Amino acid sequence: KFVPLSGLSGVNVKKGPKDKAWGEESRGLADWYDGPTLVEAIDAFQPSKGNTLDKPLRLIVSDVYSEGKGVTARGRVAQGVLCAGDRVCVLPIGDEAVVSRIEHGSATSASASPYSYAAPAGGGTDNDAVVRSKFAASGDNVEVVLTGIDIARTSPGCVLCHSDPDLRPPVKRKFRAKVLVMEKLGVPVIRGAQVLMHMHSIDVPAAVSRLVCTTKRDGSVKSDRPRVLTGGVSATVEITSHERICIEEFGDCRALGRFALRRGGETIAVGVVEKVLG
User: Fold this and answer.
1) Which residues have a Cβ under 8 Å from the Cβ of 271 and sit 6 or more positions away?
2) DSSP for 194-257?
3) CATH 2.40.30.10 domain range(s) in the chain
4) At 52, is the pLDDT very low, low, confident or very high (cuts 50, 70, 90)?
5) Is 208 exposed, middle or buried, given 0-12, 13-18 or 19+ CB atoms closer than 10 A?
6) Contact status, residue 232 vs residue 181, Cβ threshold 8 Å
């Protein structure tokens, strides 16, 4: 959505161009623009969920803690729909649990936890709140209370999915990916390079096990089996993590199909999963 404004004078950032507080600097904009201010446009923005509601459930856990007889997992629904009463599988462990309650929270203060802003205080009726407590959809940040599982079997970075084996993401160590090497790269990337792979809520040691090829901007192959990858290069590589993780092709699940490679505290490359190998 197009929102014209002036960063220098502040016209249409918080106050519209027709506000009496402005002088000559807002006259030109006030003659033709009667839309929202930047702040109003941001407040009213609703992110598109596309077709991710129809995809298999993927809830990425960012925090877990014990609550009574249940385990509370806080995280974001990357895709799919989760309902109270659903039986879910916690990967990569593979244990199953039952969703007893879903909490969206309410933002009452600036110090409230990030998940709370999924449902601002004062928005909607009591009936809406009851309905919302029974399900979570793609894009929601929620707290899910699980029963039938020990807290020691869960951890930040695990993924909740439906218990049906056909609807679970692969749990593998090796994959092929398209990467873009950062411009300011001190030491070139070679075969066998040890890196730290950052993906959503996890950091996993990994190795660049094979340099398949370098590519041009249009995706065509520039050179096969390069010896090194230097700064600014696009390439296809194979990566092997030191432990099994939930990973999917980028086209199937964006949250589980994108990553960053770090070395020595610096990001050396970013990429997306092209194919899960094993």
Assistant:
1) 177, 178, 179, 180, 237, 258, 259, 260, 261
2) EEEEEETTEEEEEEEEEEEEEE-TTS-EEEES-SEE-TT-EEEEEEEEEEEEE---TTT-STTS
3) 52-167, 171-276
4) confident
5) buried
6) yes
- Eight-class DSSP state of 187: S
Give pLDDT tens digits for 125-168: 555 555 567 889 988 999 999 999 999 999 999 999 999 999 99
Tell me, rounded to whole angstroms, the distance of Cα 67 from its chain centroid. 26
The CB density around residue 41, as the number of other CB atoms within 10 Å, is 15
Would you say 235 and 226 are in contact if contact means Cβ atoms under 8 Å apart? yes
Distance CA 128, CA 217 (A): 48
d(CA 278, CA 273): 13
What's the chain's average pLDDT? 86
What residues pair up with 258 in beta bridges, in sequence order? Answer: 272
Residues 6+ apart with CB under 8 A from 9: 22, 25, 26
| pTM for the model | 0.72
Backbone angles phi, psi at 252, to 5 degrees: -90, -40
Consecutive H or E run containing 72: strand 70-79
Give the CATH number of domain 52-167: 2.40.30.10
Alpha carbons 267 and 270: distance in angstroms, whole number: 8
Burial letters 69-87, b for 16+ CB under 10 A, else e: ebbbbbbbbbbbbbeeebe
276 exposed, middle or buried (CB, 10 Å; 0-12, 13-18, 19+)?
Answer: buried
Residue 237 has, within 13 A of its CA and on its CB side, a CA count of 29
CATH class of the domain at 171-276: mainly beta
Spatial separation of the C-alpha atoms in residues 142 and 52, rounded to whole Å: 17
